[in-house]
Amino acid sequence: VKLVESGGGLMQPGGSLRLSCTTSGLRFGDFVMRWYRQSPGKERELVGAVGSDAHGQSYADFVEGRFTISRDDGKDTVYLQMNNLKPEDTGVYYCYAYNYYSHHWGQGTQVTVSS
Q1: pLDDT in tens, 30-52
Q2: Could you tell me whether strands 45-50 and 77-82 are parallel, antiparallel, or unpaired per DSSP bridges?
């Protein structure tokens, strides 16, 4: 099983980034997908999630309507669209797949928000 994140980089405050997490080796449609992040000096925290078969999304309070999680089951990929980025959004972003039987982490992609 592999989860590969991409799309991170350096962005100015107020800008947008779209992260992707492409999976292989699992039945993607059977898994709930989450995005986490770990900012410097902080614990890893949940950003948001999308249910299997795209049933429902949920977000952490700090998202404040700026981020959107979506999934494309035909491409075995989950996305995190991040708008109006703030310096405090800086961190390593990880995708996470889980169901009743197993769970899997990606290796992370760095997002840096700075002027």
Answers
A1: 999 999 999 989 999 999 999 98
A2: unpaired
